[in-house]
């Protein structure tokens, strides 16, 4: 038996000193007076800071706003404890953006984009200096590319700006500011500050429904009924961004020698891609912004002389001879051939390449082509198993698409396989016929619909 002491000495509650307590930095910090409490911030104060930093307009919106529900997990990951988002607006020089010499427009995009990042940084530093940790995600790049081709941006600047009442989303899927129109670039500062007051909601739509963006788009990405062909815009306008660059590299890899490469890629395309790497990727069009007359500071020439506006602003872009990048069999290819026969078509591979079967299902609305889907209807069941499992009911009905999670009703065609097998089929590593014969791909229903389905999502 172990003898216990008659008295137990309680441990000393005083903090024990460590070598760190004698470090000069620690001594210097502890000798300072206590920092002041964080400044209480109001909407007016934050706008004052933003305009002083160089913004042309700014607002605030709470992280609790229902319009930002999709943004919340992403911004909270970037700044734990974020409570408010502060969108900023910088205007661009209108005449530069409208120039038919597109290098002029692209210099303006890049210059203003860099300025947005500088202004956002200055505002974030100011808010942090007032006791509220704040960060500024990039206006455009760099992004979190490990997530690509799915969401790689931290925050949707457009969604935040609209939620804060700084504009509305136009037919061209860009924010239209009530004063500056479409000629703006956007940034967002994330802050832990609770800001008193909120930006007033915009009580009207600055868009004037002229539909000049519809007429000017070289690939027909904007349809008169409001539909948007995402894949058309992404393939052409963003040719030198992200997966368009990947396609270029694959052309290099696939070429047998320099002569074969020259047959595949023109000297101008090679030089343009080099220029994008050296000076920043260039938009191939952005005509939807260039022709937009909306906004108090922009609309006067359109109101004064509409015919002259079309002649001076719209026609130099629509009549411009240029290369248009399209995927074979898409609505964009048909649109260029019909509407702009003087423009050169270059067929490229699709830039929308899913990285999993689940991503394939989510991306269907982005790559859907209305043209091949007109005049017939069918219901498809997609059942992909494995690590990237996904089940969806896809309904095509005379040019419309509906994708519903889960399997519902009786399909006209049902596909079932491992997600990895489906990706191998999409990447042409595995024959769909051989996969069906060996039981790796199970097909039930009208197999002729498989061809029709594939035409609606060309790659």
Automatic annotation (TrEMBL):
Record flagged with keyword Metal-binding: yes
Assigned keywords, A-Z: Iron, Iron-sulfur, Metal-binding
Pfam families: Fer4, SCP2
Compositionally skewed regions (Basic and acidic residues) per UniProt: 11-21
Span of domain 4Fe-4S ferredoxin-type: 198-227
Domain of life: Bacteria
InterPro entries in alphabetical order: 4Fe4S_Fe-S-bd, 4Fe4S_Fe_S_CS, SCP2_sterol-bd_dom, SCP2_sterol-bd_dom_sf
Gene3D superfamilies: 3.30.70.3270, SCP2 sterol-binding domain (3.30.1050.10)
Region (Disordered): 1-21
PANTHER family from the UniProt entry: IRON-SULFUR CLUSTER-BINDING PROTEIN, IRON-SULFUR CLUSTER-BINDING PROTEIN-RELATED
Record's protein name: SCP2 sterol-binding domain-containing protein
Organism this protein belongs to: Nannocystis punicea
């Amino acid at each position: 038996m172990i003898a216990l002491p008659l008295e137990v000495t309680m441990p000393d509650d005083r903090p024990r000193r460590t070598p760190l307590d004698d470090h000069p930095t620690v001594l210097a910090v502890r000798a300072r007076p206590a920092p002041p409490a964080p400044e209480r911030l109001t909407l007016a104060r934050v706008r004052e800071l933003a305009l002083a930093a160089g913004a042309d307009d700014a607002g605030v919106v709470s992280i609790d706003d229902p319009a930002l529900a999709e943004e919340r997990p992403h911004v909270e990951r970037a700044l734990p404890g974020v409570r408010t988002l502060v969108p900023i607006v910088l205007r661009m020089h209108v005449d530069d953006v409208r120039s038919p010499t597109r290098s002029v427009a692209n210099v303006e995009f890049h210059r203003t984009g860099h300025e947005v990042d500088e202004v956002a940084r200055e505002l974030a530093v100011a808010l942090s200096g007032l006791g509220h940790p704040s960060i500024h995600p990039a206006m455009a790049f760099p992004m979190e590319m490990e997530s690509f081709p799915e969401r790689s941006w931290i925050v949707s600047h457009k969604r935040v700006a609209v939620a804060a009442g700084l504009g509305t989303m136009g037919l061209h899927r860009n924010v239209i500011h009530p004063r500056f129109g479409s000629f703006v670039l956007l940034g967002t500062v994330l802050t832990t500050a609770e800001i008193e007051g909120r930006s007033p909601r915009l009580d009207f739509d600055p868009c004037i429904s002229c539909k000049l963006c519809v007429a000017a788009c070289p690939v027909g990405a904007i349809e008169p009924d409001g539909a948007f062909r995402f894949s058309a815009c992404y393939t052409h306008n963003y040719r030198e961004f992200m997966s368009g660059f990947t396609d270029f590299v694959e052309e290099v890899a696939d070429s047998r020698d320099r002569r074969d490469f020259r047959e595949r890629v023109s000297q101008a395309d090679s030089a343009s891609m080099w220029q994008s790497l050296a000076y920043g990727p260039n938009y191939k069009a952005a005509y939807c912004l260039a022709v937009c007359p909306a906004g108090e500071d922009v609309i006067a020439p359109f109101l004064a002389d509409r015919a002259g506006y079309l002649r001076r602003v719209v026609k130099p872009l629509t009549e411009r001879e240029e290369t248009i990048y399209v995927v074979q069999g898409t609505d964009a290819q048909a649109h260029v051939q019909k509407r702009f026969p003087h423009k050169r078509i270059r067929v490229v591979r699709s830039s929308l390449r899913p990285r999993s079967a689940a991503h394939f299902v989510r991306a269907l609305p982005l790559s859907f082509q209305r043209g091949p889907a007109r005049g017939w209807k069918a219901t498809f069941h997609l059942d992909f198993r494995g690590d990237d499992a996904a089940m969806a009911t896809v309904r095509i009905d005379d040019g419309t698409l509906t994708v519903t999670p889960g399997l519902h009703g009786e399909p006209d065609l049902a596909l079932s396989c491992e997600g990895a097998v489906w990706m191998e089929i999409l990447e042409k590593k595995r024959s769909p016929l051989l996969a069906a014969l060996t039981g790796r791909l199970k097909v039930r229903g009208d197999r002729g619909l498989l061809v029709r389905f594939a035409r609606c999502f060309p790659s």
